[in-house]
Automatic annotation (TrEMBL):
The lineage of its organism: Bacteria, Bacillati, Cyanobacteriota, Cyanophyceae, Oculatellales. One of its GO terms (cellular component) is plasma membrane. The keyword DNA repair does not apply. It holds the Pfam family EamA. Keywords: Cell membrane, Membrane, Transmembrane, Transmembrane helix. Belongs to the EamA transporter family. This is DMT family transporter. Residues 4-144, 156-287 form the EamA domain. The chain crosses the membrane at residues 38-55, 76-93, 99-119, 126-147, 153-174, 181-200, 220-238, 250-267, 273-289. It is a multi-pass membrane protein.
Length: 300
């Protein structure tokens, strides 16, 4: 099951990468980042509500443990806010910084997750996990192209990028803490309800998001909400249920590799040698985790 968990997270990373390209096209069409953050959250919440109410019972809670008698708890509220803020902080970061810099800072999250997990468990992570974290972060730096660019840094952008990494790590760790009680769909359903209420309240104060409802933008909005939010976040949460949060966060660093490859194929953007090496490092990090999972399953 651990290999399936890593595979689910890899698929989630691929969907996030595709959704990032779709989102950039929506921004060019006049959709504002805050409007898209609200729309994707509401679409995902509606879809998860339908799954939770009418889907199989196995989707609502893990079969090994019955659903908690508490329908809701404070960790789910924190998870909902983490989901709300991780996207918008990243959008602010890429508005103020080069995308490469924002991406590098956000994907320091695996190191944060490993550190938080080590503190919770009061023991050092396995050497293979530490090596995978280092390889993944170096790989993200190379894939982003940050070392080959002349970059102007903005203080607000740097703060937003740092917050995006913190929220990325937070929802990974929080998901792990509740997924064994509520199940992947149960966790995401509750968290996205919290996130949706926040964004609806925020957008109500800003006025009607007319660009979101433009017929030409609706297919992209629906894809970002379903294919770029509902499905990948649920896959991530289910994957965390199978593997540790630290391993899940490292596997998620496949996103910039896939995004770079899609930009090459879809947008005609070229990849230099450093980016290719960075992609190989990230792939090696994920493969090392997969091999470790296979060995653990054999020993178990």
């Amino acid at each position: 099951m651990k290999n399936l968990g890593l595979a689910a997270i890899a698929i989630a990373a691929m969907l996030w990468a595709v959704a990032a390209i779709v989102a950039s096209e929506l921004f060019a069409a006049g959709v504002q980042p805050f409007e898209l953050a609200m729309a994707r959250t509401v679409v995902a919440a509606i879809g998860l509500s339908l799954l939770y109410q009418f889907g199989p019972t196995s989707l609502r809670s893990p079969p090994a443990k019955p659903l908690s008698h508490r329908w809701f708890e404070w960790r789910l509220v924190l998870l909902g806010f983490a989901l709300a803020f991780v996207t918008v902080s990243y959008y602010v970061a890429i508005d103020r910084l080069a995308v490469a810099v924002a991406l590098v800072i956000q994907y320091t999250a695996p190191a944060l997750v490993v550190a938080l997990t080590a503190l919770q468990m009061r023991q050092w992570p396995a050497p293979t996990t530490i090596a995978a974290v280092i390889a993944a972060i170096v790989g993200v730096v190379l894939v982003s192209g940050v070392l080959s660019s002349q970059l102007a840094l903005n203080r607000l952008g740097l703060i937003a990028a740092g917050l995006s990494a913190l929220f990325f790590a937070s929802y990974t760790v929080l998901s792990e803490s509740v997924v064994h009680t509520y199940g992947a769909i149960g966790v995401m359903f509750r968290a996205f309800i919290v996130s949706s209420l926040f964004w609806i309240g925020f957008q109500t104060a800003q006025g009607m998001p007319t660009a979101v409802f433009a017929p030409a933008n609706l297919p992209g909005i629906l894809f970002v909400g379903i294919g770029g939010t509902l499905i990948p976040f649920s896959l991530l949460c289910w994957g965390i249920q199978q593997v540790q949060a630290s391993q899940a966060s490292i596997a998620a660093t496949l996103e910039p590799v896939i995004a770079a490859a899609l930009a090459w194929l879809w947008l005609g953007q070229t990849l230099d040698l450093a980016q290719i090496i960075g992609g190989i490092l990230i792939l090696l990090a994920v493969v090392s985790l997969q091999r470790r999972s296979m060995n653990e399953e054999k020993q178990g």
